[in-house]
Structures are given as structure tokens and as C-alpha cells.
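Researcher: Going back to the complex we discussed earlier. I've cleaned up the inputs and rechecked each line, so this should be the final set. Can you rerun the prediction on the complete assembly and write out the structure?
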Amino acid sequence: MTTLNDLTIAVPRGALFEDTVDMLARLGLDTDELRSNERKLLFEDIGVITMRPSDVPTYVEAGAADLGITGKDNLLEQAGQRPGEPGREVYELLDLGFGRCTMVLASRAGPDPALESLRRLGVMRVATKYPRIAARYFEESGRQAEIVEVKGSVELAPLSGIAEAIVDLTATGATLRENDLIVREEIAVCTARLIANPVAHKLKAHSIDRLLDAVRQLPAAGVA
Amino acid sequence: MIHRIPSGTRDVLPEETREVRAITDTLRQVFERHDYGEVYTPALEYESVLLRADMAEAGPAYRVFDETGAVLALRSDMTVPIARVVTTRYAASEPPLRFCYFAHCYRGVRPQRGQARELLQAGIELIGSPAPDGTAEALTVLCHALDAVGLRGYRIGLGDASLFPALMSSLQVHEPARAGMLEALARRDFVGLETQLTETGLPDDDAALLLEVPQRRGGPEVLSDAPPQAVEAVTGMRRVLELLDASVAERVIFDLGLVRNIGYYTGAVFEVYDPALGTPIGGGGRYDELLGRFGRKLPAVGWALGVDRLHIALAGEERGTGALLARSDSQVAQGLS
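Model: Rerun complete. Updated structure for the full complex:
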């Protein structure tokens, strides 16, 4: 297996980029330009398009890419909220193992201010970039929460008093510690996933299966 | 003044209507040629009637009260209303019965390209004709309809709704694990399926089979390589294949993992794919127990096409663009070692 054949693959910029490109390189793809040109988005000659990880399910669902790599956090955030509610129409084919992070509920060290708020005010305020995961988690655990959606630096919210807790993704916990936050609950472990467009999965079955086999046979470095 | 319309609905103006009408007129001719009679039914039905069908997540999404306090629901497909028509209006008629329709249906979906909350469906229902003959007839009409409107690159995925449950039964997978695995498959989540298989503590070979079989899809070789536990479904698919003309058979992709998100399917299920669109254009299958729930036990099969999706795919093929068409093999072939 040294080619992607007729496949187009959506590659996430950001934290998953290096591991993803390493994997593509080990599959035999010429990734030099992909690594060196950060501004370019479309690499037609190798069948790669790059985008932010949360956009990967969108492009794959629409068929603009046959395959894509994105974090489980994005798939969970874009999934249906309750049974029957449709989420992204994509196949989740493989757990790639890399990009391992944990979705956690964290609050300031010391007596848990979120618990106090829940006890005295009946609700806790939770800041997050993942409002749907957070809402679903509190609903399933029978607690009332006010979700405060922020786009960046979630750690700031409990420090500045707009929320008692945060729901966020953490790899090493360093950022949490630096901001005096400790993990109270672990919600989900998230790794990189290989996803596929449902029509491509049927019409390009042979190419996709060959790629899957090749990925599965890669030496264990990073691939579960 | 700008006055809004609900999310997932839209106005269709004359130029688009003309193109859509050309498609539906052509489809209607094909349906009539195959002796399928066109029916209209009310968009609003009693909720209790629609709920007899167990449609899982594709069931009715919009409800209102009438003046007596009864709950009415907007139909989410035409199969269930036609099942009602057959059992109430054709209670004593000699099967088989053939119906076709062009009707708006209403679903609580997340609106996206070709996926509206109010969608125009064109389809047929063949009542009282069992497998494999009825299935083969439905697939034949489907191909004739798509050929007639000029869709070129389409394929029809053919699977069997009973295959995976039968596989689980033969490998002694019991509730609640069964429901979880079936749900993972319906969500197209093979990673989730694998996780659940590991947790159930099945023997490695059995777990591998349950993970791998639903990922098999392709030509007739898929049927000959199928495991013995799937023999019933696979034999059914082979019998259907034997009845198809070559021009229809060459369109079929056998898919051992095909699951439709509608609860009433019992046997063969199918979906229509075209490289110009990233989502299926339509689909259908056998629903041999649905009519019984309405009081007249008759085997049945049917399918529906999303007319908007068909229109998008036709336009995409015409332009040579669209989801999976935009990228030719040669573009990708360079630069690969």
C-alpha cells in the first residue's frame, strides 16, 4: 500500500496535525509540502485538504473528502443529543490511538465551588467550548447546569467568576494546574478517529478497505 | 418585507419547479408503465395510526391537536399511510397491489444539503408480493426510474435487515448487548461496535466476525465469502440477484452491513448512491410485518427517492462536479510513491 488511490482525505490542522501527517508519510504519501506550507489548504496532488479539526466531520459528511481524521471530542460534540436525534452522517472506522486527551470537569482547587453552587443555588455554571457534550453529561448525571459557551481560554472563566467549573479537553493537565484548577470528574477519553463519507464508503469500498488495512498494519507507533 | 419560513423548509420558484416537474413527470411515466397506481393521502394523520409502525428515529416529528383534542401528526413517510390505505380501503382486494406516490413528508432532521424537514418523496409500494420476486421487481422499477431520468453513475446498495441480528443470535449475543451493538451499527460507529464487542467478553473469533462482516461490501463475491451464520440473508440476496436483468444486477453493491434507520424493515434493504452526492438519494426495503400491524398480513416491499437529492445529483453529474466527482483519479495519482 503506497497510494491513497482515488481518495481525498481531510487532515486536521492543530494538535493532531503532526501525528496525522506522520501516519500519511508512513503510508507512502509525499508529505513534504504539507509539512512546509502552513497557509495552503488544498493539496490536490496527494489528495489532502487541511482544515480545523472541528470542520472535518462537516467536509466528510458533505463528501468534499472521502475520509477524514478528527478527534473523538469533535464527533461527540456534533453527535445527536438524545436517541433519535440525528448526528453527523459519517462512518467512524478506526480509533487511530494518537492525540489521546481526556474530557474533564474541573474547578478551582480547595472545596469544590461547583458543588457548593449546586447545593445552595440548585445549579452550577459551567464554561466550555463543548456545550453539547457538557449539557448531555449533566443531563445524564441528573444535575442542573448553566452552560456558558466560550471560544477560547476556558480556564479564565472560573478565575474571573463567570462560572464555577469548566468542561474541557486536557492532555497533560499542565494548563489546568497553572490556573489552579483540578480535575473533579473524567467524562470521556478522546483519541483521533478515522471517519468516512457514507457514499464513498460504498462507492470507493476497495480503496477505503486497502487504506484501512494499511493503517492497521502500521507499526504500533501511535496507532492503537 | 422579509417574512421567515421554518428551518428546513423552502419555497420552490418557477425555474426550479420546471426542472423538478420534468423529473417527476418522467418518474410517473415509469411507474405507470409498471402498473403502479398513483395515490394521495392526507399529510396529517392520527398520531396513533402512524405510531403503529414502529419507525424508530424516522417517525413523525410534528404534532398538533384537532378541535376534539386528538393528536394529529404530519406523516414522516408514505409507506405507513399506504399500509393504512391497503388495510382499510383494499381490505378484501386480491394482492399484489401496486401504488406509487409523489408526496411531501416531514421529518425532524438537521437541515443540510438535500435534507429538508419538508421533503418531496417519489416512490412505490408493492404489497402482497413476497421475496425474492417482489424485491426483484422493486429493484427493477427503481433502476428503470433512475435510468429514465438520466442518472448515470448510481449504484444500489443491497443488504438485509435480518443479517446482523441473525449473526448475533447464532453467536449467543443477548440483550442488552444486542441492542447496543445494533445501535452502534446504525450510527455507523465501528469503533463503538468494537469497544462493545471487547466488553461483552465474546471469544476473539466471534468478536472479529461481528466487527468484520458488517464492513463487507462489494460485488457478488461478498455473498460467496459470507460466513455460514449469515446463510439465510445471503441466500435471500442471491435469489434476488438471480431474478435481476443484467442491466439492473450490474448496479447492485452487496452490503452486509447496510442498516436503515427505520424500524419496520424485516428483510432486504437498499439504498441509492451516486458519486455526485455525499448522501444516499433514497432507499427502501421489505417490510413483511408492517401490514399485519394494521390488520392484514401481507408481505410488502417499497422504496422512496428524495426528489431534491435526485435533482442535485442530476445537476452535479451534468456539470461534472459534486461531492465525490470533483476529484478525478489522475489528480490524486501523481505525487504518490
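Model: Worth noting: The CA atoms of residues 3 and 29 of chain A lie 7 Å apart.
Researcher: Good, that matches what I expected from the previous run.
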